[in-house]
Every structure is written in C-alpha cells, then in structure tokens.
Amino acid sequence: LLLTFPTVGALVASRRPENPIGWIFCVTGLVFGVGFLTESYAQYALHASSAPLFGVQYAAWLSSWTGPVLLLAAAFLFLLFPDGQLPSRRWRLVAWMAAIGSSLTALGVAFEPGPLEANRSIANPIGIGGTLGGVVEVLGVVGAVVLNVGVLLSGISLILRLRRARGVERQQLKWFVYSAAMMGGGFAASILFSSSLVNSIAWTLGILGFMVLPVATGIAILRYRLYDIDRIINRTLVYGPLTAMLALVYFGGVVGLQAVLHGLTGQESTLAVVASTLAIAALFSPLRRRVQGFVDRRFYRRKYDAAKTLEAFNARLREETDLQALSDDLVRVARSTVQPEHASLWLRPDTASKAEQAD
Predict the structure, then answer these.
(1) Segments making up each domain of the chain, as ranges
(2) For the chain: N or C, fewer Cβ within 10 A?
C-alpha cells in the first residue's frame, strides 16, 4: 500500500508531467509513509518499549496531520481526473474550499490543546491554551466541515463528468469508478456485516480496491489497455453474484445435510461436503449462463440485442433460397448490429458460369 501510490505517481509524472495527478500520487505516497512511520513509532514507544523514546509526542503529533492532507489529495483527484483539468471554471470554488478547509483543519490539529486526534493517550506537545486555543479549536472544526463539503462536491463533479463523457474519456472514468466502487463497497460491507468471515472478506476487498485505485488511475491516464475495462466490469458483474450464490448453496447444503445426517445417524459425515461439492459443479454452468444473460440484458442491451439478431438471422439463413432477399436481410442485420454510417453488399460475378454459357 505504501509503495503503490508513489510508484504509479512517479510513472505517471514521468510520462505525463503536465498532468498533476502523478504528482498528487507522489505526495500521497509520501504522506502515507510519514504517517505510517510516525504512528508506528509512537505505538511502539507506548506499548512495546520498556524505556522512554525520544520525540514520541512529536511523532504522534506529526501522524495527526495525514488526515487533512489525504482528504485534500482526494478532492483534487476527483476534480482533476483524468486530464488534469477542472471540469469547468466554476469548480475553482470547490478547489478553494478543499484547500482552505484542509489548511484550517491542519491548523486545528497542529495547535489544538488536549489529546491528539490520532492518539488520545498523548497530549499535543505544542497545543495553545486560553482564548487563542479556543479560537484555533473553532477554526479546526469549521475547516473540517468545509473540507468534507469540498470533498463531497468534488465527488459530485466526477459523477457529472462521467455522465457527460464520451469515447476515450468515458473509458478512463470507468477505470476509476470501478476501483472506487470496489473500495467503497468492501469497506461499506465490512461495516454492515458483523460476521467475522464476511467482515474479513469485505475488509480485504476494500483494501484491495484501495490498492487498485492508483493502478487503475495510472492505466486510465496512460491509456494502456484502456478498453479492457468493459470486459473486466462484465466479468465482475457475472462472477461476483455467481460466486456469492454458489457459496450460499455450498454452505447451506453442508449445514443442512450435516444436521439431517447427524439426526439420522448420530454422527458427523463427509457425505454433506461431497453432495454440496457435486451440487456446485452441476449448478455452475447453468447459473453462469443465467447470470450472464441477465447482465447482458440489463447492462449491455446493445450487445444482447445484437446477439439475438444474429441468432435470428442464422435461423433464417438455413431456409432462405432467394439470393436477393438474403442479400437485403444481410444488409439489415449489419446495420442493426454494427450500426455503420453506410452499408452495402457487392457480390462478385460468377465468372465460371458465364464462361460455360459463352461456350
């Protein structure tokens, strides 16, 4: 995680130095590294070290700064992706909101008296007391509100950009949205489900999405295998629900059959596992076809309609004997599936037949 952002950032910055997103990722990686090192040092000093260590309070104080800086980086990433430009001039206000909010929040974190936000067991070593300290605390709260509103509006700008985007830009945005959805969905599911297994899987998915985010962003900006995202999204929409359904069938079958067999025989049996495994093997192909058909109908309607059109044409082709009708039908199918600007059919004359007729 610490290496993903700076590595992708350095690659993007070297290939597209005019795009600020590469530099944003480099700064993000630096902030992650500093925050991780200082927080780890503070935790080690508090819980593992037998002797006092130098600068523990200042290390914990420095680690508290990561939050405002990372939120500012997220806001500018939303605003500037994928071309490094704001969607329009009116979004400058949102950029200024995020920058000012981050600065005020950092000011509050730096000088607010009392325990540090990142580590409540350590007091702020340079906290300001009295009236001035109260003012700093209020400014920090106001800054946090402004910063979060700025991040929210920045996310809305990305959604609006996606709705208007066409062609290459839309493919670039799909890469970002895919990784962001993986990250957000994983973290949200880890909060909603308290089951240890589901929580662990969801949290791992969220971390994986967070690591994939800079990679997907780099692919989008550098346009490497840009159009593979459609196939990746399709496979995710198919195999995600398919895996969930098969897992439900498997665990439900194991638990249910184990209970039945235990009631009949009074002992555990591997028959439940074997039967559930066979059921999974039998259900995989038909379930995959049904899920694939639903996904194509719901999300890839043009592809689904084109496939149905070709199937119907293939059925008519077996019975059609009129060459002119077949030619007209072929042109109609090409127009409805490929949707070219112009479609026509040219048949090469049968020179052999003409030569025989001449003889």
Answers:
(1) 1-164, 166-226, 242-299, 304-349
(2) C
